[in-house]
């Protein structure tokens, strides 16, 4: 028997935004943290997720402003990811492999579920910058993500996510394999 859906009342939020970008997402977000939190209060959202791209610069300010206004802060980050090659690797020439060295497979949003997750989020954002060549935008590999997945919630959806991009490129089978891999790593998270 299916679990009945909760009834939406006047006090129940209809939407909690999990992928907000603030002014700390350079060239992507324009709203200051305080304005985002005030919007969540006005819309009666009990929580709000900040997932700025490639950084956690706004995490402290966001947390303080949210707590001060009674909103649960959800700290996260959006990172580019290079997924493992699961098919056709042997068919590629050395030149093709070299061309793809810095190519990413999309973006994922990660939200810290607990203190361990926040520690892992800091490690992932650091490695994205420290282990990426200077001529390339920061990214992480799936292998590093897998090693630092404890306490993190993965949001794989979105038009720039690896699964969506694979489907758009007529690679639904690859998207299915990546989805299974992510499910194995993150389970119900």
Overview of the molecule:
- The chain has 189 residues and is of the alpha/beta class.
- It contains seven helices and five strands; from the N terminus they run H-E-H-E-H-E-H-E-H-E-H-H.
- It has helices spanning 33-42, 59-69, 94-99, 115-130, 142-147, 162-168, 172-186; strands at 47-50, 72-82, 107-112, 140-141, 152-155.
- Strands 1, 2, 3, 4 and 5 form a five-stranded mixed beta sheet that branches.
- Helix 1 (33-42) packs parallel to helix 2 and helix 6 (162-168) runs antiparallel to helix 7.
- The two termini are 24 Å apart.
- Residues 93-99 have low confidence and may be disordered.
Record keyword descriptors for this entry.
5 strands, 189 residues
As residue ranges, the low-confidence spans are: 93-99
The proportion of residues forming helix, as a percent range, comes to 25-40%
Alpha-carbon distance between the two ends = 24 Å
Query: Strand pairing plus helix content: what structural class?
Result: alpha/beta
Tell me the layout of helices and strands.
Blueprint: H1 33-42, E1 47-50, H2 59-69, E2 72-82, H3 94-99, E3 107-112, H4 115-130, E4 140-141, H5 142-147, E5 152-155, H6 162-168, H7 172-186
Parallel strand pairs: 1-2, 2-4
Antiparallel strand pairs: 2-3, 3-5
Helix pairs in contact: 1-2, 6-7
Concise synopsis of the structure shown:
By secondary structure, this protein is an alpha/beta fold. It is built from 7 helices and 5 strands.
